Amino acid sequence: MKIGITGASGQLGNHVIEQLKKRTDAGNLVALIRNPANIEGIEARVFDYEKPEELASALEGIETLLLISGNEIGSRARQHENVISAAEKAQVKRIVYTSILRADSSQISLAGEHLTTELRLKSSDLSYTILRNGWYTENYTASIPGALQGGAFIGSAADGKIASASRIDYAEAAAVVLTEEGHEGKTYELAGDHAYTLSEFAQEISKQSGKDIPYQNLAEKDFAQALKGFGIPDAFAEGLASWDVCASKGDLFDDGKMLSKLIGRPTTPYSVAIKEALA
Q1: What is the set of domains in the chain, with CATH numbers?
Q2: CA-to-CA dists, residue 55 to 4, 33, 84, 114, 266, angstroms
Q3: Residue limits of the NAD(P)-binding domain (predicted)?
Q4: How large is the angle between the packed helices 198-209 and 270-278, nearest 10 degrees?
Q5: Is the per-residue pLDDT at 264 higher than 90?
Q6: Which residue of 12, 65, 109, 198 is most buried, as measured by CB atoms within 10 A?
């Protein structure tokens, strides 16, 4: 069985490939990326979401496809449509898609494109599994160096509970679903076992670093402005701030523990992720 992985050279894609190698022969794997030179150890094919006329031939012989959502916000619904249409032409049997937690009810601006892709999958003739991934803990650990330098961890999530998990947790879940039977037609809400507020996150940074790093909650516009000051592009900074506000309303919380059920172990605690980031 050939398994294709889109976005295979990305942060999630790399982890998925490593997890798949533990479950199947590397000869069964095909990396689908813009630059095949970025992948070693498995077959790699040129795959560009923006070149629909070339996608079907790249999918030839692939039975199961992991469609990792694109990173070009605003273009993803169209890009994913290109991939799904190509998969239909290439007679791919099943697509596993990485969506967002509660895509059908989330207030997060990213949810719309994900939901459009989900509905397109459900209306196709393909078998599908939808992985509604929650937040990556790395989304917050990436801010630790700046927090240590600035003396505070800033955000707009107030006291919202965030049930994040590490990329490797989500990657392992994808590998399980790609290589096991019984997941067809399922939509899984995936999140971490260990929810926290950003105040608790900052307290853990303080504990492990030995420095006093309080959490400073900012208004959405002020947080966006601060992010822009750090060199983050305007649109992305405004998006990050708005998503934090959504976290304050519960959009990043889930206590179903489906992710740990799929991978057969507890998800990575945020304290461990912080320890790794500090190291």
Answers
A1: 3-133 (3.40.50.720), 134-164+191-254+265-279 (3.90.25.10)
A2: 12, 11, 10, 20, 37
A3: 7-180
A4: 40
A5: yes
A6: 65
